Amino acid sequence: MRLLLVEDEPRLSEALAYILKKNKYGVDTAYDGETGQTMAETGVYDLIILDRMLPRKEGVAVLKSLRHQGIHTPVLLLTAKDSIQDRIEGLDAGADDYLIKPFSTDELLARIRALGRRPGQIQGETLVLGGFTFRPLHCELMKDNQTIKLTLKESLLLELFMRNPGQVITKEQILDRVWGLDSDVEANNVEIYVHYLRKKLNSPNLKIDTVRGIGYCLKEGPDVS
């Protein structure tokens, strides 16, 4: 699951990004509203954590713009404003949840998990395909009572494939989703991690096909019951 964190206070942003990564989330950060909006408009994120008081463009204005464009990515709004009217304004602008500063990291993680359980939002915490059960937040892949541990990058890659079975995913999409928009990682890294993932799947029931010159496609094999 890839998150966008838009928070202008550097120490808080760094601390939150560290905690989120430690809990197996992929995280990109922005420090002002305009940059955050530009990144959010790419559509590569599963959830946006958006501070309300931001330089260059205020958080609620960013949120309204995203919703006006038809971008429905779940948004968790962070704010030091705790009046009822402030909460109403944020929710009416399109926020899916609202967290008042200061907050505990346990509560933040719980809110993210709760958004993940809402129908039509981030999909559930367990994915099942081709006889495999995948738990993205635990980086665990299970088949026939065997648990296969994945690295964070492998987990993000498999999650992208399993949420889009049968669809061709380009190398550029994989780079943006797994490594982040600002990453200078080259396309051959994608090939390396696909190779790692194929070795761990090692099953005719679930295969990653190469679409030459474009990218990859996850398919269930012919002998899947």
Automatic annotation (TrEMBL):
GO terms for molecular function: phosphorelay response regulator activity; transcription cis-regulatory region binding. Residues 2-116 form the Response regulatory domain. It comes from the Bacteria. The modification 4-aspartylphosphate is found at D51. Residues 124-220 form the OmpR/PhoB-type domain. Keywords: DNA-binding, Phosphoprotein, Transcription, Transcription regulation, Two-component regulatory system. One of its GO terms (biological process) is regulation of DNA-templated transcription. CDD domains: REC_OmpR_DrrD-like, trans_reg_C. Coiled coil: none annotated. Residues 124-220 bind DNA. GO terms for cellular component: cytosol; protein-DNA complex. May play the central regulatory role in sporulation. It may be an element of the effector pathway responsible for the activation of sporulation genes in response to nutritional stress. Spo0A may act in concert with spo0H (a sigma factor) to control the expression of some genes that are critical to the sporulation process. This is Stage 0 sporulation protein A homolog.
